[in-house]
Fold these 2 entries.
Entry 1:
Amino acid sequence: MGSAGLRELCAKHKDKLLQADLLIASDGPRIAPDRPTLFLGARGGHPIDLVVDLREGAHHSGNWGGLLANPGIILAHALACITDARGTIQVPEWRPPLPASVRRALAGVEVDGGGNGPTIDRDWGEAELTPAERVFGWNSFEVLAFTTGTPERPVNAIPGHARAHCQLRYVVGTDVDDIIPALRRHLDRHGFVQVEVHRGERGVFRASRLDPEDPWVGFAARSIERTTGRAPAILPNFGGSLPNDTFADVLGLRTIWIPHSYAGCSQHAPDEHLLAPIAREGLGAMAGLFWDLGEPDLPPTAPAKET
């Protein structure tokens, strides 16, 4: 929902009540059900509405077909120029840098949603990237809904307008203030001046990412490996969105998230669930981490590296 008020609350109390070095939190899924995972930030989420509004009402497709521009066709072609046929982003400003530290952290990481998760489409998205890099190190553009005419009861008429609700999931290195202007320029270059571009009303999150080579990351990873017997996957950020930028940017904290769910959990659905083995292991891993925080050999608290 955007965590209304959280940023203001943190700004008000950052120098006293909320002053700290590190945030340890839990949300989201593991990279695979049987592999402990750390993630260090979140992709941003930016809602985008595209609208083609040509005229009042619909008009008979026999009498007016071939004479009136169809907003659904115009919008479909506009959407088709934002990515190619495999979903590779074509807007230059939406193609972020991929730091070497991020690539090293994601080397060998395999995304596994468990038995309930969908099969990954390996020929979808940026061809030069691995599946892990596509979701944890790159941007993705999605069409969430597309309407024109009356889908529930089609009639023989050319609709007057069309609308698509879209979203850009983006990583650090993308200029959030230029997301909408960049798309406007891109559509204009392709001749789609009649397509209106608006920022959606809900679900705006900013991207954040702690450097995977920060000493606190190594500390947490070693602790979890000692407790579970397995080295955790380290994700520079996870694919979804959280208000993590508030903790990282406003409070100035290093942020380490330790998920205890899995990708096939039916998130946000009526049957969302938690696997008992992950819950048990998660309790042990967190107890071990908080125990280790009480030991004297904590990492230095030098400023985190920028990515």
Note: The first helix runs from residue 6 to 13.
Entry 2:
Amino acid sequence: MKLNHLFSALLGIMLTVGFTACEGEKDLNIIEGELPIKTGTLYMVGDATPNGWDIGNPTALQASADDALTFTWEGELRTGELKLCLTTGSWDAPFIRPEVNGTEIGKTDISNAKFAMHAGDPDDKWRVAAAGTYRLTFDLRNWTMSTAFLAEPEAPSKEPILAENVFMVGDATPAGWNIDAPTQLTRQSQYIFIYEGTLAAGEMKAYTQSGDWGAPAIRPTFGGCKIGRSGVESADFIYTTGPDDKWQIEEAGQYRLTFDLEHYTLAAEYLGEIPAQTNTPIEAEAVYIVGDATPNGWSIDAPTQLTKQSQYIFVYEGELVPGELKACTQTGDWGVPFIRPTFGGCKISLSGVENAEFTFTANPDDKWQVTEAGQYRLTFDLEHYTLKAEALSIKQPLEAEAVYIVGDATPNGWSIDSPTQLTKQSQYVFVYEGHLTSGELKACIQTGSWDVPFIRPAYANCKVTKSGVESPDFVFTTGPDDKWRVDEEADYRLTFDLEHWTLKVESL
């Protein structure tokens, strides 16, 4: 009997404990919202910040004495971009970012605005719209940030710049972006330097020495300051390492630029249009194409060589993928003249080339844009400065047992090991029906590797909306890494036709 009493007592204790545990489960508190970001350090990086984009030495914020998870910084910010990180030395770490890319920091103070934190894309950043002295406060406990505009920027010192030389660099200048051999100006007096000659449409800045991108540069007081027929938009310039502001030449032509290093001013005079030139036949033993549209990519040491058919006719026959290309007559040197279209982004497609004429020049760095993958014949005529592009074959159906979509717009995100599989409706038709969020996506026919070809739009950021897809054509290639952009979150039907290389989008 005593043994039975013992068992009864034990059973009572166990039941009591069990009931107590159940009651405890009912009383569990669920923590909602973001957990505090626990860190002892916080840094900001960007061209708006004192230390620029140096991830090894970003600008540190200080933890508050009252709250170790509230960080502040006070000082001058330039116009430009910034984001924040918890550690130094890695671009792959999570960054603190605005909830909306390009959110402005300016003279209007911000109070307790929510921020986000994540690694990778989208690479959202704040944009400092007005230079000045600021106080920035980041509350890592509540995931909020505040700003206070304290003062206008201090006027930079304008001691006369003592220099033996002044050089221009940029795609608007004759020497392009070649910092080792930039365009040299004529020294007229101790502080006056003059350039007179041709400028292309594009960007430029100036240096007092060659060979060093890290040296202070002569720049406009704001980015994109225009130079054109009426002169320069603002005569004042600054002499600084950053931000990397440049003048914008609006129209190609003959110009006279006068830099006054004593008074920090630039005068620009438009002298007239560039005289028409008669093209002299290009004498060459070989012609090569280079670019991410070509088989050998951007390898200037081993570009894709064309076949010489006659003294001035060179032909390429083979595959081109979406991307850029230009041509050259020698290898191993980016500083030589290149065969280029007469305007940047001139399209090459299966229907031909947008404009047949080309130029032979070191700058501006214009390139053809291949918009459709396929087999092509490119014929370069070095006597008449023309390019002919012909499609050699129609795309063959894409053979696949399965198709998957991957991306932050898809249910399984960027998981290449378990992407979202589509339903096979027929030999070449694969369908996805379900929810898509705002974001990016591309498709593949196998899992587990990012190094394989992907099904992509014919151009980057091709939009998917409830009204359909911006362009139905797709390509199957390893690069460039173009993706569709889902603009409107909704339920969709995506139909991939691997025979006709098209995507149809319907809203459900």
Note: The helical segments are 2-26.
